[in-house]
Design goal:
By secondary structure, the chain is α/β, with parallel strands linked by helices. The chain is built from eleven helices and seven strands. It has helices at about 15-25, 40-55, 60-80, 95-100, 115-125, 145-150, 175-185, 200-205, 210-220, 235-240, 250-260; strands spanning about 85-90, 105-110, 135-140, 160-165, 195-200, 245-250, 270-275. It starts with 12 loop residues before the first helix and ends in a 12-residue tail after the last strand. The structure holds S-adenosylmethionine (SAM). S-adenosylmethionine binds near residues 94 and 167.
C-alpha cells in the first residue's frame, strides 16, 4: 500500500530526509560536507525521517555527507574545466545552485513536479536563499524526456554540461536509468559529464542476510519510494550508452580517502559512485580524492 509510484504520490520524502542528514552533518565540528540551508529546508519532518532511518543504517549520515562532498568536488572541478551548465537531475532539496554559484554558470534543477513544488514552497520560507539562482524544470523521468524539458528551459545541448544525478538511480526502473545515460551520451556535447551514485544489485533485489541491510531497504519502501534498480557491473552499460571515459569508486574507498577511516559495519559496500563522459579531458583524476 505504501509502494505508490512517484506520479501518484506527493513530494519525495527521501529528499527531505537526505536534506536533514546534510543539515546534521553540517553541524558537526569535523564536518565532511557543508550545506548551511539543509537543516532549515528539511525542518522537523526531515529530522523525524532521519531519526527513524538511523535505526536501519546508522552510518547513513556519513555516507550522504561523503556523497555530497564528492559531488560538490565534481561541480567545482567541472566549472574549473570551463563547463557553464550544471544540471541537477532529481534535485530534491539540493542547494548547490546557491552554494556553488559561479559567474556565468547556469544551474538547472530537474525534478518530479510534486517534489519541485514542495521545494519551491520550502525555499520561499528562506529569505536568504535566492530562488532565481536556478531554472526549475519539472519532469517525470518515467514519462518525460528530460532533455526536451531542459531545452524548453534554455539549456543548450551543444554546450558541455555536468549532470549531477545524486541519490536517484535506485528509485527508477532500469529503462529510465539506461535511457537517461544514453540521452546524455548521445544528445549532449561530447565533453559533458554525468556524476551519479548507484546501488549494487544485491541491495535492491537480492537475498540480504543482515537485518539492518533489510531494514535499510524496507524503510525507504515504507516512505513510498521503493528501491528499483541496482547493478553490479555498470561499465558495460556505460560503454553501450556511448561513454568512453569512466571512473567508478566504492564509497568505502571514498570514505577512506576523505576521512582516513574504514569500518565494514558501516554498510557502504552496496553504494558506488560513477563519473562518465564521452570525451571530457582529465576526467579520471579531477574532482575525486
Ligand atoms: C533521495 S531524493 C535525492 C534528492 C537530491 N538529489 C539529493 O541528493 O538531495 C530522490 C529524488 O529523485 C526524484 N525522483 C525520483 N523518481 C523520479 C521520477 N520518476 N522523475 C523525476 N524525479 C524523480 C525525487 O523527486 C527526489 O527529488
Amino acid at each position: 500500500m505504501l509502494q505508490a509510484r512517484q506520479t501518484e504520490r506527493g513530494a519525495s520524502r527521501t529528499a527531505v530526509m537526505v536534506a536533514a542528514y546534510r543539515g546534521r552533518a553540517t553541524g558537526r565540528d569535523d564536518r565532511v560536507c557543508d550545506d548551511p540551508w539543509a537543516a532549515a529546508l528539511a525542518g522537523e519532518e526531515g529530522l523525524a525521517f532521519a531519526a527513524k532511518y538511523d535505526e536501519a543504517f546508522p552510518a547513513v549520515e556519513l555516507w550522504l555527507a561523503l556523497r555530497t562532498r564528492v559531488l560538490d568536488g565534481q561541480v567545482r572541478a567541472r566549472i574549473a574545466d570551463g563547463i557553464r551548465q550544471i544540471v541537477l537531475l532529481g534535485a530534491g532539496l539540493d542547494t548547490r545552485a546557491q552554494r556553488l554559484a559561479s559567474e556565468g554558470v547556469r544551474y538547472f534543477e530537474v525534478d518530479h513536479p510534486a517534489s519541485q513544488a514542495d521545494k519551491l514552497e520550502r525555499l520561499a520560507r528562506l529569505p536568504s536563499y535566492d530562488r532565481a539562482v536556478a531554472a526549475y524544470v519539472p519532469c517525470d523521468f518515467e514519462q518525460d524526456d528530460f532533455l526536451d524539458r531542459l531545452v524548453a528551459h534554455r539549456f543548450d545541448p551543444k554546450l558541455p554540461a555536468l549532470f549531477v544525478w545524486e541519490g536517484v538511480t535506485y528509485y527508477l526502473p532500469e529503462a529510465s536509468v539506461l535511457s537517461t545515460l544514453h540521452r546524455i551520451a548521445t544528445a549532449t556535447a561530447p565533453a559533458s559529464v554525468v556524476a551519479f551514485d548507484y546501488a549494487r544489485k544485491k541491495f535492491v533485489h537480492g537475498e540480504l542476510r543482515h537485518e539492518k541491510d533489510i531494514a535499510a531497504r524496507d524503510r525507504v519502501a515504507e516512505m513510498g519510494e521503493p528501491l528499483r534498480y541496482g547493478t553490479d557491473d555498470i561499465l558495460p552499460l556505460l560503454h553501450d550508452a556511448g561513454f568512453r571515459r569512466v571512473r567508478l569508486s566504492s564509497f568505502d574507498e571514498l570514505c577512506l580517502n576523505l576521512t582516513g577511516t574504514y569500518e565494514r559495519a558501516r554498510m557502504f559496500r552496496f553504494q558506488q559512485l560513477g563519473v562518465a563522459s564521452v570525451a571530457a579531458d582529465r576526467l579520471a583524476s579531477e574532482g575525486l580524492p
